[in-house]
């Protein structure tokens, strides 16, 4: 993940950024004798898992690419357009980019060539140039994903605080969300410019047969002679791409849970809600719970990484003994996180499920449009868009807008 190490012929170490996953480049044989028992166990676990990692990650990526394309196609339907769904669509786009890049990477550096080996074919200039492209691309797309998740929490929270009724206000919010999404994409690329610059290829030779291979420049993390620029880069990355977004997600995620709980309580007290209306309210809260689940998944994936990065910069030899062996595991956890959103949306959002079935199943088998409460999807949309402001309608509309957010 953020950095993995390559131990070259001369014993020099090379630092790579996020999703470099190059335990492919880790020489497990160079463990120091004074390494702790935990360190040795971690390395033996890492070595064992590395032999499966390529195949597992390719399976996860193929599943993730297909399901994220489903996500994009469903969430961009005209009747599905809401600020939250715009964010979820672009989250799916960045996840697809990450996984498309990961497939050839895993195939070459894990499946075709053993993960601990070095050879002229494996470390050729073309493949190592691809690796640098892969590291830079996935660092960017992953930073985009985590900040989109922060944006998701903020937008949903603001919507629950002040729900929109008018179509004009809703369109304004959609446009504002689109601008924020664009800012996230551009800002992520700008923040990571120091990372792009820190990755460069160096020539090396194999000691056995003097064949030329290419390796990444040594950044010496966790050593006494680490460059100041590298340390600044590491701290910046840890805070801007991991710790600050995790903190913001925690704050807004908590506010989201608190607010939905309070609002539901108030409505149940104040209004005489019919069975159908309370059902709508529970669906409305289920949508928020679904988004909270997306946020929690990101926190579980990203927060430990942020902590490990900080430890790598502060604690001597922590990077070598703890961070590197966990690299592949952090990769696969992040890939699974990218791939499971479709399952979450389907299981927790009636609206998403209906649209997906209508888009992919009905068109094949000429099945009637899915109905709910006696209305087809389009009928319901038209009906819900023309609400008056009496209490029951307000709830119905309020539910519609939330339920629309996937």
TrEMBL record:
Cytoplasm listed as a keyword: no
Bilayer-crossing regions: 52-75, 87-110, 130-158, 179-197, 234-258, 290-310, 322-344
CDD domains in the record: 7tmA_FMRFamide_R-like
G-protein coupled receptors family 1 profile domain: residues covered: 67-345
Subcellular location: Membrane
Family annotation (Gene3D superfamilies): Rhodopsin 7-helix transmembrane proteins
Annotated Pfam families: 7TM_GPCR_Srw
InterPro entries, alphabetized: 7TM_GPCR_serpentine_rcpt_Srw, GPCR_Dmsr-1, GPCR_Rhodpsn, GPCR_Rhodpsn_7TM
Name assigned to this protein: FMRFamide receptor
Organism per entry: Mizuhopecten yessoensis (Japanese scallop)
């Amino acid at each position: 993940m953020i950095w993995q190490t390559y131990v070259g012929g001369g014993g020099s170490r090379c630092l790579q950024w996020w999703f470099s996953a190059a335990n492919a480049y880790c020489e497990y044989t160079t463990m120091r004798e004074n390494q702790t028992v935990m360190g040795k166990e971690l390395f033996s676990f890492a070595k064992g898992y590395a032999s499966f990692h390529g195949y597992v990650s390719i399976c996860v990526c193929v599943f993730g690419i297909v399901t994220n394309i489903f996500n994009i196609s469903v969430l961009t339907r005209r009747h599905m357009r809401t600020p939250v769904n715009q964010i979820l669509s672009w989250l799916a786009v960045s996840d697809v980019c990450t996984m498309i890049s990961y497939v050839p990477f895993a195939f070459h550096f894990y499946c075709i060539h053993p993960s601990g080996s070095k050879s002229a074919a494996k470390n050729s200039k073309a493949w190592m140039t691809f690796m640098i492209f892969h590291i830079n691309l996935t660092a960017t797309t992953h930073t985009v994903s985590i900040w989109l998740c922060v944006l998701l929490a903020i937008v949903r929270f603001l919507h629950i605080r002040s729900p929109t009724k008018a179509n004009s206000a809703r369109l304004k919010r959609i446009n504002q969300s689109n601008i924020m999404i664009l800012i996230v994409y551009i800002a992520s690329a700008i923040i990571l410019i120091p990372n792009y610059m820190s990755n460069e290829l160096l020539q090396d030779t194999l000691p056995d047969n003097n064949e030329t291979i290419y390796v990444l420049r040594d950044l010496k993390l966790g050593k006494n002679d680490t460059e100041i620029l590298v340390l600044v880069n590491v701290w910046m990355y840890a805070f801007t791409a991991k710790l600050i977004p995790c903190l913001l997600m925690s704050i807004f995620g908590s506010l989201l849970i608190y607010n939905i709980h309070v609002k539901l309580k108030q409505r149940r007290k104040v209004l005489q809600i019919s069975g159908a209306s309370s059902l709508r309210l529970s669906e409305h809260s289920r949508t928020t719970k679904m988004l909270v689940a997306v946020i929690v998944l990101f926190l579980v994936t990203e927060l430990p990484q942020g902590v490990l990065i900080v430890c790598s910069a502060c604690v001597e030899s922590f990077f070598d003994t703890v961070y590197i062996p966990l690299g592949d595991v952090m990769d696969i956890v992040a890939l699974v996180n990218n791939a499971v959103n479709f399952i979450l949306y389907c299981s927790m959002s009636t609206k998403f499920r209906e649209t997906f079935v209508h888009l992919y199943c009905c068109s094949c088998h000429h099945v009637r449009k899915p109905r709910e409460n006696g209305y087809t999807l389009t009928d319901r949309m038209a009906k819900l868009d023309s609400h008056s402001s009496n209490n029951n309608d307000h709830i119905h509309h309020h539910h519609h807008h939330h339920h629309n957010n996937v």
